[in-house]
Amino acid sequence: MSNIGPLSGIRVLEFTQIIAGPLSCQLLADLGADVVKIEPLQGEPWRLAQQFIPQESKTYQALNRGKRSLAIDLRHPDAKAIIYRLIVDIDVVVINYRPDVPSKLGIDYEELRKIKPDIIYADNTAFGREGPWADRPGYDIVVQAASGLMAGLEKIDDKGHPTVGGAVADYTTGYSIALGVCAALFFRQQTGQGQKIETSLLINALNIQGQSMELPAADSVERTALLQDLADRKKNGIDYAQFMKNHQRVRQIYYRAYVTKDGAIAIGALSTSLRAKVRLALNIEHNRDDPDYDAKKPKQIKIDQNITELVESMIRENTSDHWEKVFEKVGVPVSSVHWVQELTDHPQIQANKYIIDLEHDLSGPQRMAAPPWKMSVSSLDPATASPPLGRDTDDILKTNGFSESEIEILKQKNIIS
């Protein structure tokens, strides 16, 4: 294997915070890019969330390995000149500030490409640059609500409030940004042209909803009925929790999680043959794969409810280990429900080298999930943990032609730290 990463030599200037932007740049760093993270003098918000030592949090450290940190007050009038000097040697800018911020700071695409015409500029917003929501700020939970993800989960808490799971819009957007940057770098290599890439939490949240979007005409009847029910809900003041209960899909037995005697398991059987194996493992009969099966018929709904209750009670009577062996024996995809904290030393994780060990400058040894790829030639071996705030400020500026006296003056003016 080569010790050169596939993006070795690519220089990235990162103006991002929280999850999507930092994750995308961590992935680029994993691929060998030199990523300089621009942070405010006090640190980005995720660095300061639930600190376990001053200016360090687990959430920040999980999303910023392999980077260098430059702490600078971008609001200071003299900060723009510093960024412009850096841009000359930068290949990629990644930014996820509020929609109005880049132009106010003078770091929007139009300004930066005047300095570096072939710059690749990845711009991520919550809702996209156009339309009535364009200027709205937004976090993952807000976009999940706006995009249909939250309603589609059909989850409510014990008081009837809609709930959200993980930050799926943020994390999928992080991968989307990294993919867009790699594509733009390949295009530039072919043509010499840089470009602006736009994505948003909203478009990525829509993309991962798949079949829930309006597809062929077969969906029109169901969609029309749902829209009418939504209008009636508003007109009649129907409680959100009651509405969700009325529209909740029947829990089928083939693709779901179950409570066991000592925990929980999940099975996935999406084909006719796999569903037959589930019935074989449980020694039950069910007409799910009969030609005339229709899950919406009242009679069928009752049948499905009865079989679901039967299977739930059966699985609850024995352990997760027992049921894993039962389903594995007949070839049904199955797993116990794990906590990620259980997996660090799991044989499957260790066999695939899915954990890496790093040393943080301040907090010491840490273990992280490895880069999400393996390559037979290129190196993917992150060497450094996330940087302490401003650790690399002096080195970055010196490398870009700033003298020690210039750097000292910038510190005295409280522009950098």
Please characterize this protein's 3D structure.
By secondary structure, the protein is α/β, with parallel strands linked by helices. The chain has helices at residues 20-30, 45-48, 58-61, 79-87, 101-105, 109-115, 140-147, 149-153, 168-191, 201-207, 220-236, 240-247, 272-282, 298-316, 320-330, 347-351, 393-399, 404-412, and strands at 11-15, 34-39, 51-53, 56-57, 67-71, 92-95, 120-125, 195-200, 255-259, 264-268, 334-336, 355-360, 364-369. It has a six-stranded parallel β-sheet, sandwiched between helices. Strands 9-10-11 form a three-stranded antiparallel β-sheet, with helices on one face. Strands 3-4 form a two-stranded antiparallel sheet.
Give a topology summary.
Blueprint: E1 11-15, H1 20-30, E2 34-39, H2 45-48, E3 51-53, E4 56-57, H3 58-61, E5 67-71, H4 79-87, E6 92-95, H5 101-105, H6 109-115, E7 120-125, H7 140-147, H8 149-153, H9 168-191, E8 195-200, H10 201-207, H11 220-236, H12 240-247, E9 255-259, E10 264-268, H13 272-282, H14 298-316, H15 320-330, E11 334-336, H16 347-351, E12 355-360, E13 364-369, H17 393-399, H18 404-412
